[in-house]
Amino acid sequence: MTSPTLTRPELTAADRCDRCGAAAQVRAVLSSGGELLFCGHHAREHEVKLKELAAEIQK
Hints:
InterPro entries: DUF7455. This is DUF7455 domain-containing protein. The chain has one helix and three strands; from the N terminus they run E-E-H-E. The protein is α+β, with helices and mostly antiparallel strands and about 60 residues long. Strands 2-1-3 form a three-stranded antiparallel sheet, covered by helices on one side. The chain starts with about 25 loop residues before the first strand and ends with a strand.
C-alpha cells in the first residue's frame, strides 16, 4: 500500500504575488511548510535568500 502524497495546486491567474499583488509565477515552499507566492521580478530578487532557507522553488 502506498501513502498518498500531498501536492500543491498549479498556480492560476487568481494567485497573486505576496509582495506587490502582480500575477504569481513562482511558489516558494519553505521547509517549515509555509509558502510564498512571487511574480517573476520578486522571485529573482529574493532567489538567493530563498535558497539559503532551503525553499523548494516551483514555477
